[in-house]
Amino acid sequence: MNKLIRTGIITVIIxxxxxxxxxxxxxxxxxxxxxxxxxxxxxxxxxISKAEKMFNAxxxxxxxxxxxxxxxxxxxxxxxxxxxxxxxxTTTRSQALNLGIYTCDLSFASLYDQTxxxxxxxxxxxxxxxxxxxxxxxxxxxxxxxxxxxxxxxxIMEIISETFMNSNSYLADNDQAAxxxxxxxxxxxxxxxxxxxxxxxxxxxxxxxVATIIDQKLSIDILINLLESNKGNPAVDELISQVNKLxxxxxxxxxxxxxxxxxxxxxxxxxxxxxxxxxxxSVETFKELTAVxxxxxxxxxx
Amino acid sequence: MKTVRLFSGILLLLIALSIPAHSQxxxxxxxxxxxxxxxxxxxxxYHAAILVEGEEAELYKTFYSxxxxxxxxxxxxxxxxxxxxxxxxxxxxxxxxKDNGNSSSWDFKLESSKQLKLVIKVSSFNKPGDVPASGCVxxxxxxxxxx
Lengths: 302, 147
Known about the structure:
The structure holds two protein chains of two kinds. Chain A is mainly alpha-helical. Chain A has one domain (61-254, 282-301). In chain A, 61% of the residues lie in helices and 8% in strands. Chain A has twelve helices and five strands. Chain A has helices at 2-18, 38-50, 61-70, 92-111, 115-131, 140-148, 153-173, 177-198, 208-215, 217-228, 234-250, 283-301; strands at residues 53-57, 254-257, 261-265, 270-274, 277-280. Chain A has a two-stranded antiparallel ribbon with strand order 2-5. In chain A, a hairpin with a 4-residue loop joins strand 3 (261-265) and strand 4 (270-274). In chain A, helix 11 (234-250) packs antiparallel against helix 12 (283-301). Chain A is globular. The N and C termini of chain A lie far apart (51 Å). Helices cover 21% and strands 40% of the residues of chain B. The termini of chain B are far apart. Chain B is of the alpha+beta class. Strand 1 of chain A pairs parallel with strand 3 (56-63) of chain B.
């Protein structure tokens, strides 16, 4: 009974600390609220200008898969993470990484019209999201909608995009930015893994897929910044050291571009950002990159 | 057991009280911003935050050659105008919404892949003495699907 009374008192104290300051009361004994002065407003505005927000936008799993398709690569299911592996993922880290990985595999399968794989990989992604407590990111209705539209690529991509947004918005809005960053890392590494595995070394020079892989150098700093902003989380700290190994290889690749000139296509009103690029990556560097990516990806899916 | 239940109840109540602003942001992004991406396919990423008038945000993203993009930047109606600029690595302004009739979207494609920076600024109502307005600002990207 005493415990109950104590709990009641604590409840009242907690509620008054968190809730009551926001409540209005007309009681005469209420402490007089000081009016907001011009000086206060100026101070708030100064604080605001200092409190700049920053977003590090990594390519989403859907965009990564689209880049591989656009580069003309062919589909090969051997490079997807088998759905039988879902039972291996029981920790937050492994579920977050593999939510990104399975979403990338799902996107890849959808772009190549692999109807059965689309359903299987959506179910695998659902298990990861459920494990992370992301309720209703992917529900039975999603799966049914997917089945009904299995031959409609546009609707499938819309569903994938929607479910991924449900997951990462849930994580962002529930102060789980570190988990959201891990999901994105998993998806990005999976895209890079599939791309590197699909390169035909007999057709290396002038290979469009190789050019797409080189372009990922432009995102490595964004990834590191994203992870650094969540430093202190043990899973993120481990990823930072893995990604830094990858950065060391990307640093061996040179990318030089001319300044951008903008031109508007009057027919479509689309702005074209014109610039020329020169890159160089030796076969040796590519092999090293492929090995490091594989090592990181293997550690994610084991 | 009762104590545990009571504490769980309090915790849930406190969590519930802290969620509305964020949930409101997600709902705004989904209902108001996403439709503006059409006919481009949303990439699935979510970039949204509560900003206050006068506040600035930055976003870094790599855009790839051979892809056609649309970016949409919108703020809730209770906020003053939200402006955005797109800059290259040398801080050259490639696009400014202010110079384009305060448009909330921009369609573009690149000859070669580039990392670009978006600077988003919530302007001010310029009402000295008023507590600054705050609301959700969402930045979303879509791309065209190659057949």
